[in-house]
Please model this.
Amino acid sequence: MKLVALIAVCLTGALLLYGTTDMPNWGDPNSPASLHVSPRYIEKTMEETAVPNMVTSVLADYRGYDTLGETTVIFTAAIACILLIRRFSP
Amino acid sequence: MVWQLNLILLLFVLICAIASITVKDLLSSAIIFGVYSFFMCLLWAEMGSVDVAFTEASVGAGVSTIFFIVAILKTTRRSKD
Amino acid sequence: MISPFEDVIIQTVCRILIPFIQLYGLYVIAHGHSSPGGGFQGGVILGASFILLCLSYDLQEIKKRLSQRANVIFLSVGVIIYAGIGIVCLLLGGNYLDYSWLRQILPVDPVEARSIGIFGIEVGVGVTVMAVMISIFLDLASEEEQKGS
Model:
């Protein structure tokens, strides 16, 4: 059984390593991720939101829905912990 | 981006990851996982994403280690296999 | 679970250190505009300071300073702040979470209004994350039964 698990892990690792060869170089300006929306954020953040840190402006303004969902996920985790672990006296 | 520093940090990350799953004592495993998170944080910071590094340092190396330790305190310290 | 113990060195160091950790957490939340950081990281640091108080004293100490009921209220208030700012923008005529419409109730121009809106939701995220960290830690660490609803 352990041999099967080892083979599965090695196979998955090899596939992932093969997948990384298709990725663009580190910090490549011509990669697809930095061609479409990134230049607009980099150019317009300061004049649209007056926030010097671009990460904060993208996280909280342009992608506000995502951060709302993230906060809701954390809130749900805490509620689940309260319901599952906390023992209430009757 | 200095590739020698990257290589050293990546080696430490690998060593910590392997040690964290092979060690028998779960408390040591939790602490080594915290060290793993810290080296991951250094790697993020070295690659220029400072916000992610900050999150990794505060959540991964700080709070989640405490949660692991408290969970071990609640259950058992020895792993079964 | 965590038995109370008396150690003068640990308690003194933590008593001196905790206000500075909390001040740093507030700084990270408030200064997320122009430096790394933001609501999530600052909230985690604030929660970690309370956890340090728990570890250095005992669990009753944190329940004296921040009751479980108040903690649950904090948990919800953060999400309400976040969603409420979005609702305010909606009521003022804009889209949901479009902070530039806050200029109608704030005496600033739209660009500054967006900056203030970002600060508001960072505070909301910070409050929620702080309460979540304390809540999960107390649930995991405490053994006796909770009083109340």
User: Anything to note?
Assistant: Residues 50 and 65 of chain C are 10 Å apart (CA to CA).
